[in-house]
DNA sequence: TATTGGCTTTTTAAATTCAAAAATGCAATT
DNA sequence: AATTGCATTTTTGAATTTAAAAAGCCAATA
């Protein structure tokens, strides 16, 4: 029962819609709507829907389309681990890990990479394209690729935080800064739910994602896209370093509180206060991290979420 | 007399070494040395050297290698216009221009692009990879590519300057900031030479390049790579907007002066003063730009250099 | 009238072959 | 001992073909 990679990914994304509660039991799934949402045509969407109805997540009614069948709770168990959008991510992570730990040389030919990871030209291309986007790989002038030195040390985290401590509070003071109630409400909803939910039970990846999302959505309100883009980029770099770390859930509660406080200040129009609060929030994450011992060999690492 | 693209590029780069004065008449050119410098093997270097000796720029002595033959001055006339490293740049610029002026849709298939610009799969790939790196293109989930909204308006310049006004002065106050005499001297040399030379005669591209270089080299001294990377990236974006503009040379003298002043302050260890000076310098470029009328159709644009 | 479901067309990936180009090894020369 | 000049090997690009996958179309249906 092989099916296309894209359909797989879409199936996973649709599953996410159900588990996240955006879709309830009985809701219809419109193919065109989903296709637009994911930026694809209806073909892979249809395929995904068919897959999911075979798995019993959805129900297909003749000539009427697909409907949510299974409850979110029942699903939460079964998925979440394998269901990762974008399979490539795995190979990308392998490459990133190998580079971060000096298991591959700084300059390699494509052939070596293809053999090492058993990839087609195209697959390798996708991965390298991503590494280029993230800024740690480039094509050599002749044959081969060059990997650029990436901050792999604990200091890199500090540097990222200092950078963020500069731009995130400043973003709120930009002349074009405008409150966006929709963003604020959405983030409040997400953060509140994280507090209500048993944080221990949520997958680490989701925690990290929500944390980054909060900051990225907020910085958008500066209406200066260069602030936003910069944050997105350091966050991507951070993720590269983080995926091997252990989430320190004990600090999460405090951090969600901070987030909600900042949202409150913003909503009351106390932007300058919010800016200070943001600075303190980031500074807190920074100072608490210094005593941590790092060993980049094979141990898991402590880290904070913001 | 076709020769490989790479060899062409290298020939151009070598020519640059001669015209820039790094190599004088009679100096030998070591193949391995050049190969290492450009990150390629000796083959394309040899080919380039042979090309140049056919053109009379170099002289080949039996079993002893290549030597500079022509003087820098004599060369300066003949080259500089066609001799652009990286041919691809042209196609990239065409694509960028077309996107900036809405002549291509936000979502296109590779085939459409290949036909429009008459490119091979690989050439198109290179160009798109570059656009991905610069952050304004991404592969769609299914077939095709999506171009992301790029700030194409005058406001974009202001936004970039505000971002730079934040990070560049702050970079000097980073805890790991260290003066690097070598960088300072190098930049002083470059800026002084621009002042001494008749600025009207220097190619616009070089002026822009030197201006960006000054700021990028200085921010490096923060020893926080994320500051540097961010600046490099907004500068790249800026260049995308600038290549259609007209360089306002009248302001150049003042800007070089500013640069030299900042270097003086840094050298005397007055870092905080330098930080302020940098802020004023950037702020000046910003405020002077507002009265400019923009028309993104086909007219040339005014702009400043920093 | 919007949407589905099947069908057709278009687009891209994969595999293969061939030629060009780059990398590399080594004897000869300075 | 370092470097050239040439020969050999390796890597990559280009072109082609085939198959898979996605996009787009349209009649049927709720």
List keywords for this structure.
homodimer, 306 residues, mainly alpha, Arc Repressor Mutant, subunit A, Four Helix Bundle (Hemerythrin (Met), subunit A), 3 domains, three-stranded antiparallel sheet, 59% helix, disordered C terminus, DNA-binding
Shape of chain A: globular
Strand proportion of chain A, as a percent range, falls in: 5-15%
Please tell me how large the radius of gyration of chain A is.
Answer: 21 Å
Task: List the secondary-structure elements of chain A in sequence, H or E.
Answer: HEHHEEHHEHHEEHHHHEHHE
What is the CATH architecture assignment of the largest domain in chain A?
A: Up-down Bundle
* CATH homologous superfamily classification of the largest domain in chain A: GntR ligand-binding domain-like
What do we call the CATH topology of the largest domain in chain A? Four Helix Bundle (Hemerythrin (Met), subunit A)
| Structure summary, number of beta strands of chain A | 8
């Amino acid at each position: 029962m092989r099916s296309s990679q894209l359909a797989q990914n879409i199936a996973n994304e649709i599953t996410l819609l159900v588990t996240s509660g955006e879709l309830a039991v009985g809701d219809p799934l419109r193919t065109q709507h989903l296709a637009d949402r994911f930026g694809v045509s209806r073909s892979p969407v249809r395929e995904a829907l068919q897959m999911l109805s075979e798995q019993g997540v959805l129900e297909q009614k003749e000539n009427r389309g697909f409907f949510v069948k299974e409850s979110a709770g029942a699903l939460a168990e079964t998925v979440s681990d394998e269901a990762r959008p974008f399979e490539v991510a795995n190979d990308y992570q392998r490459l990133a890990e190998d580079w971060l730990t000096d298991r591959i040389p700084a300059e390699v030919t494509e052939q070596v990479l293809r053999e090492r990871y058993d990839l087609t030209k195209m697959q390798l291309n996708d991965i390298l394209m991503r590494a280029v986007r993230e800024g740690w790989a480039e094509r050599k002038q002749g044959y081969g690729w060059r990997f650029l030195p990436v901050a792999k040390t604990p200091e890199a985290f500090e540097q990222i935080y200092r950078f963020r401590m500069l731009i995130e509070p400043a973003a709120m003071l930009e002349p074009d800064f405008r409150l966006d109630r929709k963003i604020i409400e959405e983030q409040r909803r997400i953060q509140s739910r994280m507090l209500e939910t048993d944080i221990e039970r949520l997958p680490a990846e989701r925690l990290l994602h929500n944390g980054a999302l909060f900051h990225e959505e907020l910085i958008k309100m500066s209406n200066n896209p260069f602030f936003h883009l910069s944050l997105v980029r350091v966050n991507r770099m951070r993720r590269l370093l983080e995926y091997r770390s252990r989430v320190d859930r004990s600090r999460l509660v405090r951090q969600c509180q901070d987030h909600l406080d900042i949202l409150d200040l913003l909503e009351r129009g106390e932007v300058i206060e919010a800016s200070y609060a943001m600075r303190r929030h980031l500074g807190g994450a920074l100072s608490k991290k210094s005593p941590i011992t790092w060993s980049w060999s094979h141990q898991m690492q402590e880290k904070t979420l913001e």
